[in-house]
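Page 37, continued from 36.
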């Protein structure tokens, strides 16, 4: 048994690349059994779930969307805010009920919550019916651990990892757009954030492995890749590489659309901006989390930039990258945030006129420095600030969307619309969601779409003509 420890999670002693291969004897052992997988949290988790699916299906499990039919339930959890945790705990209650009187019903917990010692304690005490807990660093051990399961609860969570895992297989959700990990972990230690503890220290994949993966995806018909890291600007610092070079090399593979998330405003270099501006296949879309517009709060958050530095970077991006769209993340109600601090945030939002923003109320995470800070601001006040912020945010996303009305834009069509089978959906180069009148044959193509209606969170459009291949 291995239990998580937040102090150990902060350390990293060496780095090595570990190549994973699945034991041939494991294939198909669970033939015909069904699994139900639910994913919470960010793109990292969504992509990790693609690895989990691949392992389970190699073992012979088949997917079901009906939990009552399943023999195995896997919850890939997120720890970023308390409400993410509440959702998982709520769903666990349902799993417990379904497991009653059934020997063939196993429950597995994976993901970031499993790296939190207080959660693991509660699993041991209150959720004894959970069969297996696996951490974020050892997903590749899932087949072995499933085969070894017995009546006792198994907890295999490592607190840190020096390894960079290579050679993972993924059962990708899409045949058009793909996630590509470029690095794992985060070294920024923003004082509110649990991620450096749940995902470990920053470690980069090798440039060649990433390029090979992108080329392979291109050969298999993928039109878009999104390079994934908690802070992609930091890519390569541990292995003598740079994100600017990686981005350029990926652009040179000829992949039609290249995106990346997330970039921290700190150490976003001019070179990176120039590369984004230079290549047409690097999409003009940047997610640039602000978190707060108050210098006082930014300092307490350990964000390493001031409001002025943020605005300077923002303006540089707008000037140098034609037609760039920028979105952001904002936290309100950080401990002792004053009305003045909050107004500073609103002022930055007014200046930046973001294309979109994810807004959150600060949620204390046990083990992080901010969770220990005294806080006199009431929840009522925080909720009111969130509402005021959202009004301004929505005003600008709507305004930016309106600019596209009656314009013809390129949209990469990803799939059929769930609500309306006469429509498909896709994204503009600037990452705006468009519902398009058109048939399934458009899926996987970048097509011209005339925008006929613009709302705050999506656009409607009509297919005009297929883009001529270059
Ligand atoms: N690596 C990414 C962040 C991933 S978490 C980055 O730095 O941009 C996504 C967002 O969740 C963060 O940008 C932040 O706005 C929010 N968040 C993180 N910890 C939080 C907390 N304790 N309470 C509320 N929001 C939080
Ligand atoms: Fe969390 Fe900050 Fe790292 Fe983002 S950069 S994952 S907010 S510690
Ligand atoms: Fe959540 Fe872990 Fe992502 S805490 S936001 S799933 S890195």
């Amino acid at each position: 048994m291995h239990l998580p420890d937040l102090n150990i999670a902060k350390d990293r002693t060496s780095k090595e690349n570990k190549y994973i291969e699945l034991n041939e004897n494991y294939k198909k052992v669970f033939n015909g059994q069904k699994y139900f997988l639910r994913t919470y949290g960010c793109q990292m988790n969504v992509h990790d779930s693609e690895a989990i699916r691949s392992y389970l299906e190699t073992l012979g499990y088949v997917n079901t969307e009906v939990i009552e039919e399943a023999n195995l339930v896997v919850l890939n959890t997120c720890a970023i805010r308390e409400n993410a945790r509440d959702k998982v705990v709520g769903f666990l209650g349902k799993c417990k009920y379904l497991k009653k009187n059934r020997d063939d019903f196993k429950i597995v917990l994976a993901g970031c919550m499993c790296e939190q010692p207080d959660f693991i304690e509660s699993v041991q005490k209150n959720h004894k019916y959970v069969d297996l807990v696996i951490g974020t660093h050892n997903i590749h051990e899932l087949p072995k651990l499933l085969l070894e399961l017995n009546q006792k609860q198994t907890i295999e969570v490592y607190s840190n990892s020096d390894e960079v895992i290579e050679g993972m297989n993924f059962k990708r959700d899409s045949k058009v757009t793909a996630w590509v990990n470029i690095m794992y972990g985060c070294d920024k230690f923003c004082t509110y954030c649990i991620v450096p503890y749940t995902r470990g220290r920053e470690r980069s994949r090798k440039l060649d492995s990433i390029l090979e993966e992108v080329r392979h995806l291109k050969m298999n018909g993928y039109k878009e890749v999104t390079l994934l890291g908690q802070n992609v600007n930091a890519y390569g610092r541990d292995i003598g590489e740079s994100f600017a070079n990686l981005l350029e090399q990926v652009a040179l593979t000829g992949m039609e659309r290249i995106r990346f998330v997330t970039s921290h405003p700190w150490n976003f270099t001019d070179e990176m901006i120039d590369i984004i501006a230079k290549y047409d296949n690097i999409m003009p879309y940047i997610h640039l989390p602000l978190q707060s517009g108050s210098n006082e709060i930014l300092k307490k958050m350990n964000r390493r930039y001031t409001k002025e530095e943020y605005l300077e970077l923002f303006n540089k991006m707008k000037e140098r990258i034609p037609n760039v769209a920028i979105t952001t993340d904002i936290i309100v109600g950080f401990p002792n945030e004053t009305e003045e601090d909050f107004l500073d945030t609103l002022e930055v939002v007014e200046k930046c006129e973001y294309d979109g923003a994810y807004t959150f109320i600060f949620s204390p995470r046990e083990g992080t420095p901010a969770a220990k800070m005294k806080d006199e601001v009431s929840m009522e006040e925080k909720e009111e600030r969130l509402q005021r912020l959202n009004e301004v945010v929505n005003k600008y996303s709507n305004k930016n969307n309106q600019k596209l009305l009656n314009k013809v834009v390129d949209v990469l069509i990803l799939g059929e619309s769930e609500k309306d089978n006469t429509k498909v959906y896709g994204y503009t180069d600037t990452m705006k969601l468009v519902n398009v009148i058109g048939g399934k044959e458009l899926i996987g193509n970048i097509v011209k779409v005339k925008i006929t209606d613009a709302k705050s969170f999506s656009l409607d459009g009509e297919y005009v003509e297929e883009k001529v291949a270059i």
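The CA atoms of residues 421 and 439 lie 8 Å apart. Flag for discussion at group meeting. The two ends are 55 Å apart (CA to CA).
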